[in-house]
Amino acid sequence: MAKRVPEIFGSLVFNDEVMRERLPKDIYKSLHKTIESGNQLDPAVANSVAAAMKDWALEKGATHYTHWFQPMTGITAEKHDSFISPTSDGRVIMEFSGKELIKGEPDASSFPSGGLRSTFEARGYTAWDPTSYAFIKDGSLCIPCVFCAYGGEVLDKKTPLLRSIEAVGEQALRVLNLFGNTGVRRVVTTVGPEQEYFLVDKALYESRRDLIFCGRTLFGARPPKGQEMDDHYFGAIKPRIAAFMKELDEELWKLGILSKTKHNEAAPAQHEMAPIFTTANLAVDQNQLTMEVMKNVALRHNLVCLLHEKPFAGVNGSGKHNNWSLSTDTGVNLLAPGKTPYENAQFLLFLCAVMKAVDEHQDLLRISVATAGNDHRLGAHEAPPAIVSMFLGDELTAILEALESGEVYNGTGRIKMNIGVHVLPPIPKDTTDRNRTSPFAFTGNKFEFRMLGASISTAESNIVLNTAVADTLQQFADELEGAEDFTAALNALIRRTIKAHKRIIFNGDGYAEAWQEEAARRGLCNYRSTPDALPHFVDPKNVELFTRHHVFTETEMHSRLEILLETYAKTVNIEALTFADMVKRDILPAVSDFAASLASAISAKRAVVPTMACRYESELFEKLSDLTDLAYAQVDRLEAALAEVKARGGDALQTAQDYRDLVLFAMTELRATVDAMEPITSEEYWPYPTYADLMFSI
Ligand code: ADP
Ligand code: MG
Q1: What is the per-residue DSSP string for 481-495?
Q2: % the chain with pLDDT above 70
Q3: What pLDDT shows up at residue 47?
Q4: Distance from residue 185's CA to the centre of ligand 2 (Å)
Q5: Cα separation of 159 and 54, whole Å?
Q6: Which among 152, 72, 153 has a CA at the least distance from the CA of 112?
Q7: I need a labelling partner for 458 at 20 to 30 A (CA). Which of 412, 486, 503, 623 fits?
Q8: Which atom of ligand 1 is nearest to the CA of 335?
Q9: Nearest residue CA, atom 6 of ligand 1?
Q10: Does ligand 1 come within 6 angstroms of the Cβ of 27?
Q11: In the prediction, which pLDDT does 4 show?
């Protein structure tokens, strides 16, 4: 196998190497130019690329092609067409034109548009994004695409991402020019998303409708053993899991995904995969693909991969760590501290740009991770709180403090600290990664945004980060380009930025109660739930930000908000219906049967000895009868809450709030009762696999 890795790596990807090999030289050059400049593709070039792509795909056994895109549903969409084309003599040939490569017309009415288009003009189109390589999946040539309505409004996650990458690249380049780095032609965002997931046995999964319909358990009593022993994290990977991971790696490698690290995570049955970082556009596509491949490979091992943020209450949820940095086309990481005073000054300016961006747009970062699923995780076990703050580590924080005050202790006394003149003390990488509780941590040469839920696309967070940083870099460049004395202006700017935005820096324990209070004193936002966070998406400052950088139009922003609110409401609605169904059809009948069996046991015993106390049976009988009556009433209340929300018929925001306040509340009450019944109901009668079964059976 080891020898084969370089051979299989990227074998299903129409990557640069394949293009260079298979395209005529001028076509290859022209395509490359388009990729780098983002300009329109010449139709003649498209035809030639399509022909080469088709031949390559046929050799690899593909029969179909699909425009692969990322609508607002959060998962990828594809509609497969075969390459066949009939000939006059009744046979078929395999064809694929440049037109088919460049543009597709899926029925846009099946994708959420947030009111952007009425159903009678439910047309949309997909357009090839040549910056992301085509690949083969399950016998289909997949062509990464953007997705727009016919009016040109964006209906996907990819288009705004591409725009944000362009925006931040352009502004970063201006800043680099100020530092005399004129050799750099392009700056790109680099992203490495670490992905957490759970694996459960497929047969057990299939016997729980909550897992099937909601991706998470809606009830389940705590098992006697949870994650307190830490034995899962440090333990060896079990053979069945190891076999899954091995195949996962191979499948990802074939797709050109740099799967690098695999290990167990803190919770039982929880694991993590991390790829080597790549450009943001590819990383976002590849993370979507990774999630899909994980699910498919798991099935082949009779496992189910759960990507929900909180499949089980009481143990860690699953997140995604979005490692983010800026890199030049000459390979320089702009968030790596430099070795010379000049490099350090540049590094500090970029650091300040991120700090200001995160402080000014905390709300947007929070919004970018706001989903019904992630609400169960943020602020819970081992997860970052709903407050956005930034961890810089002690050394870097001390440096910023010295810069702000203009003085530094050099070992013998206080000296004046000036950017661009003094060499910064070295910033050791390892000490920056100790704080696992920070939602936004500097980890030596990149930032790690840890609030993302495991199942969500990494597009949103990167759109926000790129655009927010583009904005601060633009302000910096505007100010510095006009400065008479660059170094003095730089010093003043950095000092001012630190003073204005240092409130976002927090190096302490983000999970501590005291932080919530401290954050409130600092005026940081703390949006606890999705309906709290989402409406701020269209706050004037945010509309100005996104429109200024041409990432979203205001109409697009309102439509996205609408979709996100609707998605929240739909998610909770499905959960409530599923829960009510499971309780009414399975749990109540089962517990009642068990109670009846206790009653029969009492009668049977008393038939022999009429004075028998039967304490065990009668006390348990009573307890269970009380609980079933309670659960019965609570299911009623849950259904009444659902009816109430429907009857109110509020707008999208009101409905989302109602689902949270009425429906989720009723579900929490019902869950408490169900979880009280489970441990005192005979295993023989309990209709579902328990937490212990699900988490400890592999
Ligand atoms: P840590 O030990 O701090 O988690 P790793 O080196 O293991 O750091 O990296 C974690 C993730 O961060 C990996 O996916 C890695 O590829 C990614 N990463 C590393 N450097 C960068 C960078 N410059 N930009 C984006 N992601 C990066
Ligand atoms: Mg990490």
Answers
A1: HT-SSHHHHHHHHHH
A2: 94
A3: 93
A4: 30
A5: 25
A6: 72
A7: 503
A8: 23
A9: 276
A10: no
A11: 84
